[in-house]
Amino acid sequence: MADQQRVGTPVAVKAIPVMLLAGVCSFPVFAQSEVTFGLDSRFTDNARKADTNEDSDFETRAYLTAGYQTDPGRCNADFLGTLGYSWWQDDSFDSESFAEMDFQGDCELANQLYWEVDNNLREVNQDTRQSDTPDNRTRKNVFSTGPRYLWRLNDTNWLNLSARYANTEYDEPEETDSERYTGSIAWNHLFSSTFTGGLSVSHSQTEFDYGAEVDVNSAQVTFENRWATTSLSGSVGVSEIETDYANTNQSSDGLVGQINLTRQINPSTEWYLNASRELTDRTSTLDLRFGEFEFNLRESITVENSVLSTGINKQFSDASSLNLDLYAYRSDYLESDEKEDKAGINARYSRQFSELTTGYLALGFDHLSYERDDTQDEVARLVMGAEHQATRDLSLLARVGHDTKSSDISSREYDENWVLFGLEYRLR
Fold first, then answer.
1. Are 54 and 43 in contact (CB under 8 A)?
2. Which pLDDT belongs to residue 337?
3. Is the dihedral of CA 10, 12, 13, 15 positive or negative?
4. Torsions phi, psi of 286, nearest 5?
């Protein structure tokens, strides 16, 4: 979990397809699993991230984190989740439970016929202009499931046919839940031992609880190539999005695609580049795939998103490491006159001071701009932390941080200092 990230009570996970998946074939006996209990307390001198009349408070959290991964087999499952409870001593916010979860599972029902299930639970900000506090957050749960069939035509050609049902739910009642139905057909050709190319077409229909419907049609050229130290994959094509609500129809089209590039510069250094351009709606999983990206849930439903992220991961000979990430995002909300831009950098340096003690320094900076009212915000973050392994199963944690936000709108500004102490005990 992030140093200050708080996530809420999970929305009910759709259990029937998961039970169906488990019933069709048993998961392998051998698996990796781990369960950890955590307890921490954080003092902040500006709990509400206010520009004036700052209030200090203590937040105490108790939580369980569990991870489970099966060995490769006919059925596979990968789960990581956290469930806990948070108390605010001076009632700056309501004390409440929190949770986050990632689950991926699949079973081969017959030769090359798979059934897949995914569930992702996060807490997201409702209004990107406002600060990251519990009052501005809502829980987003995305559940999806469906079959996928891999049809091998010959040794160099195959078809991938898939159908998917997805349900997106927000905890706050004013946000729009949706159901999405997606079908796709992809043809792939093996041009060489390292290069694969093909074509894919897809159609999705998203129905919102309040009656709106969003249809997206897409056709793209796909490619993937692997070298000794580099891998490149992606797609490029065209897409059309159409919104139908209250006897009003609106459509947009444009160029879409994505690129994923990874290069192993040397045995200790890796560089990556990810880019994407999509025509979608704000209940999609783009914010799950790109961690710093956020949808503004106060804006229109359909949105044209452009994202770019790059960075390096470096391991040094003294067991220290450096992670550097740069990113730039643009959201063009198609049914309003709002465009939001975000560019930023995250850097983290960690070092092992002794056999049992490690420490890290993390820095972050974001620049945000909003076209409608021509305003800009800047957010800076600083965190220093240490972890000491007291016993084989017990770890002690300490962190101190400073966050600051400057803005053209004074009410959006704040300064916050905080310190956290805690422990984690591995139960198994």
1. no
2. 81
3. positive
4. -60, -35
Cα separation, 334 vs 288, in Å, equals 21
Q: How many angstroms separate the CA atoms of 251 and 242, rounded?
A: 4
CB-count exposure of residue 294 (10 Å: 0-12, 13-18, 19+): buried
The tokens describing 338, both together, are 């709002």
Full-model pTM: 0.87
Rounded CA-CA distance 234/221 in Å is 8
DSSP run (H or E) holding 261: strand 248-266
In 3D, which of 29, 166, 21, 32 has the Cα closest to residue 107? 21
Predicted confidence (pLDDT) per residue in 3-50, tens digit: 444 333 334 434 434 444 444 444 444 578 899 999 999 999 999 999
CA 2 to chain centre: 12
Architecture of the domain defined by 15-426: Beta Barrel (2.40)
CB atoms within 10 A of CB 324: 16
pLDDT at 282: 84
pLDDT tens-digit readout, 298-354: 888 899 999 999 999 999 988 899 999 999 999 999 888 889 999 999 999 999 999
Which residues lie below 8 Å from residue 419, measured CB to CB, with a gap of 6+? 42, 43, 398, 399, 400, 401
Residue type, 370: Y
Cβ neighbors of 309 (< 8 A, separation 6 or more) are 272, 273, 274, 275, 290, 292, 325, 326, 327, 328
Beta bridge partners of 116: 106, 146
Query: Among 5-9, 19-23, 85-89, 390-394, which is the least confidently predicted range?
Result: 5-9
Domain range annotation of the chain: 15-426
